[in-house]
């Protein structure tokens, strides 16, 4: 086997090293996670003093808001860990007992499915919150029939995208078996 010219080797090493340009983006996602924590705590601080006087509808909306933020944070962690491990470098944290089972096992296909599933869940929660606000003057001023139609349509596009991505992965897995 002939040895590659040194220019080609240097070029390939440079290409391979360019993956580290993604590292600042993952650091930015950590900052984004901290921002979500601040927003989550702000929501808790807003709703906690009202807990003894709030209606059940308001309590459900508050809980849905917190779940929505938590799902977004979970999605961010999945993208952060899986993306870093798949595209930059393996996380060298040893056999830490807090290491999530899925770390190091989520490939690009799995990441894609987790991403669309989280987006569908977040969209569904957002849509449920809007439906629960129907009839409230403040919400009706913002979300009329046209806005609700578009929210439902966009949610259905997310659902359909998830189904199509799952079907593509299923077909791809079947093709690999044959």
Automatic annotation (TrEMBL):
Keywords: Cell membrane, Membrane, Transmembrane, Transmembrane helix. GO terms for cellular component: plasma membrane. It is found in: Cell membrane. It is a multi-pass membrane protein. It holds the Pfam family UPF0114. Signal peptide: none annotated. The chain crosses the membrane at residues 20-40, 60-81, 111-128, 148-171. Coiled coil: none annotated. InterPro entries: UPF0114, UPF0114_bac. PANTHER family: UPF0114 PROTEIN YQHA (PTHR38596:SF1). Belongs to the UPF0114 family. This is UPF0114 protein C8N38_103306. It comes from Rhodovulum kholense.
């Amino acid at each position: 086997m002939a040895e590659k010219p040194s220019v080609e080797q240097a070029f390939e090493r440079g290409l391979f090293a360019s993956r580290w340009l993604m590292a600042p983006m993952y650091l930015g996602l950590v900052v984004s996670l901290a921002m979500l924590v601040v927003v989550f705590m702000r929501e808790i601080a807003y709703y906690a003093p009202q807990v003894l006087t709030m209606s059940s509808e308001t309590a459900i909306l508050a809980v849905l808001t917190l779940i929505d933020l938590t799902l977004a944070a979970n999605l961010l962690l999945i993208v952060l860990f899986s993306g870093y491990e798949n595209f930059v470098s393996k996380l060298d944290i040893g056999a830490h007992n807090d290491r999530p089972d899925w770390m190091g096992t989520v490939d690009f296909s799995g990441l894609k499915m987790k991403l669309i599933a989280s987006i569908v869940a977040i969209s569904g929660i957002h849509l449920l919150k809007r439906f629960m606000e129907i009839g409230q003057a403040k919400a009706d001023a913002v979300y009329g029939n046209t806005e609700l139609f578009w929210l439902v349509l966009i949610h259905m596009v997310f659902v359909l995208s998830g189904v199509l991505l799952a079907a593509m992965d299923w077909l791809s897995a079947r093709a690999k078996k044959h």
